[in-house]
Design goal:
41% helix; single chain; 5 strands; Arc Repressor Mutant, subunit A; alpha+beta; 9 helices
Length: 210
């Protein structure tokens, strides 16, 4: 590549970074970009990312987003209905109201046990938990340090990607999330309870490698 001052984003480097981000099936992290572009100064790679971000701010159809600790090029929210028409989104791909409620409880109260989720929602949630696990939206993160050592559940990287969050600090207010997803949050979800000690998973625990 043409020699440029450190911290300069050449057109060629911007094109390469754009291609890598676009082609990656999941958000590509700065660390991965630095690894793939090991011959380039990190300052130049960072400059290329920032240049692309600025460029995409001016595009009407696509946007450059930071999600799950990485970068993605995605369609703008106002165009999602058109994209759904293209893919003929199947109803089986959508979460039920029960699934959304359970996912919200886990997202805002994690780590949390199945019994605690049921207490918040007022109904048994084991079937819903299985669905969320199958879709990789939640995972088993440990065991609660109480009698019986029940599993504790938390959200996954796939959850962040699905809902366009960079990290859990980006979670909106419970009311706003419920309104956006079209369900009424369980009343007890607003009650904050102290976290108890979590035990790590052992190698023989199912889900320990999830």
């Amino acid at each position: 590549m043409t020699t440029e001052p450190a911290g300069t984003a050449s057109a060629e480097l911007r094109a390469i970074v754009e291609a890598l981000i676009f082609a990656s099936p999941e958000p590509i992290t700065p660390r991965m970009l630095f690894k793939l572009l090991a011959d380039e100064p990190k300052e130049d790679v960072t400059a290329a990312v920032q240049a692309l971000k600025t460029e995409y701010d001016q595009r009407p159809g696509l946007q450059f987003v930071e999600v799950a600790g990485g970068y993605q090029i995605v369609t703008r929210p106002e165009l999602h209905e058109w994209v759904r028409r293209l893919f003929h989104e199947r109803s089986t791909q959508k979460l039920t109201v029960q699934g959304l409620e359970t996912l919200a409880v886990i997202a805002y109260r994690q780590p949390i046990t199945a019994l605690e989720i049921s207490e918040v929602r007022g109904v048994d949630t084991h079937g819903v938990l299985s669905t969320l696990l199958e879709r990789h939206l939640i995972k088993i993160v440990g065991r609660k340090n109480v009698v019986g050592r029940p599993f504790l559940y938390g959200t996954t990287k796939e959850f962040l990607i699905r809902f366009g969050l960079n990290d859990l600090g980006d979670l909106p207010k419970i009311e706003d999330m419920a309104e956006a997803l079209g369900f009424d949050p369980p009343g007890r979800l607003f009650e904050v309870t102290p976290r108890e000690e979590m035990l790590p998973l052992g190698d023989d625990d199912p889900g320990s490698s999830v």
